[in-house]
Amino acid sequence: MQEMPCTKIPNFREHLKIGMKEPLLAFNENGIYCAQAGVYLDPWKPVEKAFITHGHADHSRWGHKKYITHNTNVPIIKHRLGEIEVSGVHYNETITVNGVKFSFHPAGHIIGSSQIRVEYKGEVWVFTGDYKTEDDGISVPYEPVKCNAFITECTFGLPAFKWLPQQQVMNDINTWWQQNREAGKTSVLFGYSLGKAQRLLKYLDTSIGKIYTHGAIENMTEVLRPLVDFPPTTRITRDVKKDEIKGNIVLAPPSAHGSTWIKKMVPYETGSASGWMAFRGARRRRAIDKGFVLSDHCDWQGLLASIKATGCERIICTHGYTEIFSRFLNEMGYDARTAETQYEGELAEMDSKIEETD
């Protein structure tokens, strides 16, 4: 779909000034910066102090001197990034840095995900990171936070994106699995190793058969098992025989598709759980047999409802359909702008690298 034209702001930093006052949060070459506190939010280049919304690779990058994030996200980013200096905070706990108050609030995106509220001299900004409004039953549900300025993703910022209830999608997935089993085929279901895979795992019907996992998904699920009651899984290793897998379901990262690793599953059918499956042709382009529309991001109505609930006047649209979405918001009477970041949204799910080959 071709994006609608939208007036671009030649100097985003200048535009957000109120009189001669610098904005509380500004975008620079390293990330989203609070100059008053000397703190970055989800920076994409190494910095001294980074407040991190969640564990996905585009938001929590290696190389920062100090990480601060929600308690639940601490083991996740330590698993991904190795030995880092990281401290955890509770939801709604206030951290004050040089007079600026920071607090983390549920984003509902994945386990351990947060929005970050920033307040200074009565002015309040909220940075969402990534978020979704549907309660998935494993993440702390999204909570709107009142603010003056709202930095929002718009990964799926088009009216065409409208999600079905999670239970309906999971029923479709379990029905697909059952049909494949009756046909003597293995079901290979692709989902990002952090977040989407665990959401799928939680609601797979184990009365149909056993759940097998790619090593990358199994490793991350082991990190999260202390937090969620997941069904049992079996890691696929070289010792697992092809006949053992037949008729069961395999959870794998998208990048496993087309690899030599998947040959052990023959005969199989592939499925992908992603918001992009809402687009005609997405399944065909990725050579997927079955697409299930299930996203860890807001759909169009979720974005609009979230913005309204904040009571904000200003909106900064980051990754996604930024131009179209910001133009629509301006037509609604908001002061909406766009800003470039290095966040990828759900595109990361389609392009993720295999983290383990066993």
TrEMBL record:
GO molecular-function term, one example from the UniProt record: RNA endonuclease activity
Keywords assigned: Ligase
Top-level taxonomic group: Bacteria
Record PANTHER family: BLL1145 PROTEIN, CLEAVAGE AND POLYADENYLATION SPECIFICITY FACTOR FAMILY MEMBER
The name this protein goes by in its record: DNA ligase-associated DEXH box helicase
Species annotation: Salinimicrobium marinum
